[in-house]
Amino acid sequence: SFFILKIAADLTWSSLRELTESSLDRGLEDEILALVRTVPGARDPHDLRTRRLGAGVAIDLHLAVRFDLTVEDGHAIADRVEDVLRERFGSDAYINIHVEPAP
After folding, report:
1. Whole-prediction pTM value?
2. What are phi and psi of 28, to 5 degrees?
3. Where are any strands of DSSP class E within 4-93?
4. Is 81 exposed, middle or buried (0-12, 13-18, 19+ CB in 10 A)?
5. To pair with 18 at 20 to 30 A between CA atoms, which of 8, 34, 54, 56?
């Protein structure tokens, strides 16, 4: 009976975390930030917010780019970041990137 209770508690905890849209674990968030830093022109990823959406994930982050870039160039960097994250988390991942100018 102990094992049945243990499994039930684990399933309940897992379900509650998904229903309350809790953040991804710290290891995955660190991986996301590391992936963003691999994109040329992407600086200082910050204000990262993540959550599970069913089998997928939602990623929301702010990204600094050089202030002298055109809007088109800044958007292209954000698109490359999004591509890298979709490659890792799947095409159905919800990804929102806010681009900010930085010196």
Report:
1. 0.77
2. -70, -40
3. 43-53, 56-66
4. buried
5. 34
